[in-house]
Amino acid sequence: MKKLFLLLPLVFVVLASGCTDFCLPGFDCTTIDKATADVFVFQKIDTFPATVSPGQTVRVVAYVKNNLESIKIIDEINMYDSCEGAFTIDSITCGGYERPEDEFGKQKCEEIPVYGKQVIPITWTLVASPGIKIQTTCKPKIKLDYIESTQSLTSITFVTSDELRRRLQEGLTESVDSEIEIGPGPIRIYFEVEDQQPITTDAGQAIVSLNIKNEGSGYLEKSEIRMDTINVFAGASEAENEKESINKKITESLEYCRDGKDEDGKALWGLTEGDEVNQEDRVIEIIGKQNIKLMCTINIPEKLENEQKPESRLYLSVILSEYDYEIRGETTITVEPRIIK
Hints:
By secondary structure, the chain is mainly β. Helix content is about 5%, strand content about 50%.
């Protein structure tokens, strides 16, 4: 697959990808190249031993894997349910990293670096209550939080009206496919071209959709995305000296999307200069695995009509920066009182 990211000044490395093609009747086919969704996963969560007597010690070990090739940081990993009353936390070991004594007895580790493809153990030492009289089953629950950013790039192809007329006369009616590349991260955000391509430059406008999906195994920590964390860029493969003006025209027209405005008609993201609105107060709510789709209209730059080449290609890039994501896991411990005969 042809890589597109060299065409925009964005740092974007696809670390592990798989391609998904889909095609609907009457629409052009789109090729989507996706990098790894889950950055961190619980490879497994073990207990040693799985069955204990009252007053005995058990270790809960969460093996955390970084799926990417580069180093990533665990913001926080926490045993948020230690079966209080049945167990108390005696100590925690944070992946082999030394911690001050005052960390002992706490339930969480913070700011833990994990190298690419590395698996690290996070270990909690629990003590079963000596007062347990009947068999008791406990399910300690663990939550891992990390901060991630996701980027994507989508191609959109235009032709002049003369070129389209020539192709139709010659029976060349094959549509052009978009290429979409999505970087690593559980929240996918990307533009998809809704119009059939190639689009004529004299059409004036084109319809694209902004898609936001949770494809990870966990959830957004606050079930929302702040509008000021979404940034859009655009660029052209041709007309080097016109890239800046083309980028400005495209991004300005993307600032207002249907179904993405408030009651006063203000855009929910990408507000223009002069709008006296605090974007930090504006959010898109995403519940669970819900998918969000905003329909947007972009203005086709007139400069494309004056290019010598009959076909032009633009690239729409969107970046979702620094969102909080969490994954959860659990294990099982059984407390069996000794039978005294």
